[in-house]
Amino acid sequence: MTDPNDWAAPGAQDAPRWGERVPSAPPAPPSGPAAGPGQQPPAYGQQAPAYRQQAAQQPFGGPGAWTPPPRPGLLPLRPFTFGEILSASFQVFRRNPRTTFGTALLAQVVLLVVTVGAAGGSAFFAFSRVESALPEDRDAVAAGAVATVVLATLVPVLLTVVVSALLQGLFVLETSRQLLGERLRLGGLWTLARGRIGALTGWSALLTLAYLVAAGLVVGVVAIGVVVGTGPSIGVGIGVGVILGLGLLVLGVWLTIKLSLVPSALMLERMPLRAAVARSWSLVRSSFWRTFGVVALVFVMIQIATQVVTAPFSLLFGVFGSLISPTGDVDGSAIAVAAVAYVLTIAVSAVVTAIGSVVQAASVGLVYVDRRMRTEGLDLELVRHVEARGRGQVDLPDPWRSPAQQQPGQQLPGHHPQQQGQQHGPDGQGGAPLQ
Fold first, then answer.
1. Nearest C-alpha neighbor of 160 from the set 367, 295, 353, 300
2. Burial level of 348, CB count in 10 A (0-12/13-18/19+)?
């Protein structure tokens, strides 16, 4: 007898019997995204478009994804932190030591030679005249000799003012170029600084004159109190001089910080001196203590480093001098040890001072850039400049000058992307000076 439930349609697959394994169903084809407006859905039997087909065409980090700020060189092009300013100030020296340290050390050697030559030559000439003068004319000749020595020592002082201003301007320019991923030789920096050396030297001379006037005022008040006063009034004059000196010291520090960005404005924005003073005053207005912290900390670090490096030499040669001449007699060996100690101490001091001048100028330049990034959005302009340069564009405008200060298409002074002595790094981290 046949079971009526065993009936099946012709061509259909037999139902599994008891104990047989049921085959698994074939996987369903992937379903595509819903058809958008105006788009026909796939016909029956056709496979829908693969899922994420369009999304796979866009790489990770496309529009809308967060990306870090570009870093073509010294620091990322965004406002800097306090620690980044300090660390990058030393990196300016390490990334291009030939231009920075070499130039500063050469300047220190020139100043040392001029100082020794001016002071030593004038002293030798003056004392020779005193010795050869007649007894009745010796006092007048001695007074003239002292005046000659004093005037001769003013020459290295004035030269120091000029050289310090020049180094500060050159290192500010080098810092700005390293931020854009560029390194220049001394010739390239000198081309950029052309036309601004006079204004920068005048500003340094003005500061030096202000310091001398303030010091002379304090000394004059104390001297008047000592000479004119009698008894208790002498102490009053000295006290007034001390109070006046402290007040002028505080005022001098405050003005120094407020006007610390003048060299950067002179060199990078190429402003006149009066406009640069106003520029520095406005940039530091809302960030006085931050600027003071950077300038003061760098100054203290340089002074401590100088003392730490030079103190062992002085102590070591003092011990050698005692061993060579224990009785204190002045002989040839003692003089030789003293001369060697003096020369080595001066050499080490020159090296530390050269490094310090680079670090100090770089720190002030970075503070200037940071203030403009925070107040004017300079970082966006620098990013646009770097991206345009990466696309091979030429005749780019100067990114450091505001649009109101330059004509469209105005380039950096002496800027040529393929000029000798300048090279961009292929990895975006800055190039190296050509050998």
1. 353
2. middle
Q: Give pLDDT, residue 403.
A: 60
Mean of per-residue pLDDT scores for the chain = 77
Q: Which of 70, 165, 82, 67 is closest to 370 using CA atoms? A: 82
- Check residues 310 and 102 and name the one with the higher pLDDT: 102
Residue 302, Cβ density class (10 Å: 0-12 exposed, 13-18 middle, ≥19 buried) = middle
Instruction: Quote the tokens at residue 303.
Output: 């002074």
How do residues 138-161 score in pLDDT, each as one tens digit? 778 777 778 888 888 888 888 888
Nearest to 164 by CA among 244, 226, 108, 99: 108
Q: Is 351 in contact with 102 (CB distance < 8 Å)?
A: no
Q: What is the mean pLDDT of residues 40-54?
A: 46
CA separation for the pair 92, 74 (Å, rounded): 8
Name the residue among 195, 191, 173, 180 with its Cα closest to residue 100: 173
The number of beta carbons lying within 10 Å of the beta carbon of residue 235 is: 12
Reply yes or no on whether the pLDDT at 104 is more than 50: yes
Question: 184 - beta bridge partners?
Answer: 422
For 335-367, what is each residue's pLDDT tens digit? Answer: 677 777 778 888 888 899 899 999 999 999 999
pLDDT in tens, 303-337: 898 888 888 877 777 776 666 666 666 566 666 77
Q: Which of 103-107, 226-230, 387-391 has the lowest mean pLDDT?
A: 226-230
Instruction: Decide if 260 contacts 291 (C-beta within 8 A).
Output: yes
User: How far, in Å, are 175, 263, 350, 420, 422 from residue 415 at the CA level?
Assistant: 15, 20, 32, 11, 10
As a whole number of angstroms, the distance between CA 101 and CA 197 comes to 20
Bridge partners of 422, per DSSP, are 184
Measure the CA angle with vertex 353, ends 364 and 97; round to 5°.
75
The answer for residues whose C-beta is within 8 angstroms of residue 326's C-beta and 6 or more apart is: none
